[in-house]
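Researcher: Sequence recovery benchmark, item below. Answer with residues only.
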């Protein structure tokens, strides 16, 4: 199973505990989609690349499965994600 992490408010707060939740991530640029499990919370201390509330950070395997280029280290477009138990 592939993994990802979310902003701490989604993972360890009074309202949400999303560790272990299955989540679908879609790369609209190439139409690839994957299922990941939320494994942790994460933040960024890089002012040029802040980690916003609805951002998702992928493990390397998940990143590559969505068509990410390992030389770039990031996807050039925004991905979409949702918890599988709350599919829209």
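Model:
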């Amino acid at each position: 199973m592939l993994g990802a992490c979310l902003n701490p408010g989604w993972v360890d707060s009074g309202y949400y505990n999303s560790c272990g939740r299955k989540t679908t991530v879609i790369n609209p640029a190439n139409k690839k989609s994957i299922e990941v499990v939320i494994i942790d919370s994460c933040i960024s201390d890089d002012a040029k690349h802040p980690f916003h509330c609805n951002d998702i950070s992928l493990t390397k395997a998940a990143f590559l499965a969505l068509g990410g280029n390992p030389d770039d280290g990031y996807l050039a477009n925004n991905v979409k994600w949702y918890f599988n138990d709350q599919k829209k």
